[in-house]
Amino acid sequence: MPAATPWRKRAAALRELAGRATVDAKLRLEREKGEDTMKLHARVLAAASFACSTLLGAAAAQAQDFPDRPVRIIVPAAAGGAIDAAGRILAQGLTEHWGGRPVVVENRVGASMVIGATAVAQAKPDGYTLLVAHDGVMAVNPHFVKNITYDSRKDFAGVGIIARLPLALFVHESVPAKNVQEFIAYAKASPGKLNHGSGGPASLLALELFKAMTGVQVVNVNYRGSALSINDLLSNTVQFVFADIASGGAALQSSSVRTLGVTSMERATSLPNVPTIHEAGLANYDTATWIGAFAPRGVERAVQERLESAVTAAARSEAVRKRLLAIGMEPAALSGREAEQVVASDLEKWGKLIREQNIQFAQ
Questions:
Q1: 102: how many CB neighbours lie within 10 A of its CB?
Q2: Going by fewer Cβ within 10 Å, which terminus of the chain is more open, N or C?
Q3: pTM across the whole model
């Protein structure tokens, strides 16, 4: 092979230099692109961080100012009943807690309380609309009402449970029983002879749980409200009723009616000498109604926390506790999360009983 001439050596060297220069240029371009990309990413991240901090700051400021206009409590029942009374007591407590900010109670009645509950479920989730309802609305209606227009778990966020409302077993004096065990024995000895008056789903479920746990056979008569069933108890048209203590004033004051037991696990503050049905021998019998506050699902977390804090503070205040006790309710102060857990538990509990006993309730 012929020896390389000087000019050939120089040409080869130049080609090598050119190749290196090309590679260096490509590397430099890629490095510059990388630097530009990193700068771009940094700018995007900075902008996103600024936007997030701005939004968080605005949300925090909004929550800090909450409420800056009247809050509305929707009660899905008529004025004068237990839910309405609890809703108005809570409204007054919140107004006091918020230094005079108005809280308005609105009664949305109809369709077994579905209309009022649905109105809140579909309301704007800004914290200014709340539902005050009992377990009948949240845990019983879903099993009884066909084509119900709200979902107790998906459509509502718990704000807090403010009261428990024990029912009592009221018995006409014609029944020869002075305690729960004597009543069970008499009912078993007289199958089908005792009539019970149900003033609503809570009363009916208290009866059905009692029947399931004791095996007694009785006749149930449905009424549109506890007041009507208690009136018929006083006249001995029905011989016993399960009715909430707040509605049972006439029965408690009548000499023709005995109060044999309460349906909660603890004795009622307003009836300290009346035993619970649980302690009277029917272990774990518990059908006390509760009343709580709920917001539409989707409220800003900071606003939701302020709502829960306010409701808890109001429920724990001495003024609210006294007002609840005065109408036969047991004060409570469960958190929003605890309220949701209670709803889930009761949905399962009552659903199981309703299916197993094939319970029907005339709407």
A1: 13
A2: N
A3: 0.80
What are the angstrom distances between the C-alpha of 326 and each of 75, 169, 272? 20, 20, 14
In the sheet with 129-134, reading across from the earlier edge strand, the strands are 103-107, 71-75, 129-134, 289-296, 156-165, 330-334
* CB of 128 closer than 8 Å to CB of 71: yes
Q: Which H or E run contains 132?
A: strand 129-134
298: left (phi over 0), alpha (psi -120 to 50) or beta: left
Please, what are the averages of pLDDT over each run of 10 residues along the chain (363 residues)?
48 51 51 54 54 53 84 94 94 97 96 96 98 97 95 98 96 97 97 95 95 97 90 97 86 92 94 96 94 98 98 98 94 97 97 93 66
Closest alpha carbon to 281 in 299, 257, 260: 260
Q: Are 208 and 353 in contact (CB under 8 A)?
A: yes
Q: Do 81 and 130 contact (CB within 8 A), yes or no?
A: no
For 143, other C-beta atoms within 10 Å of its C-beta total: 18
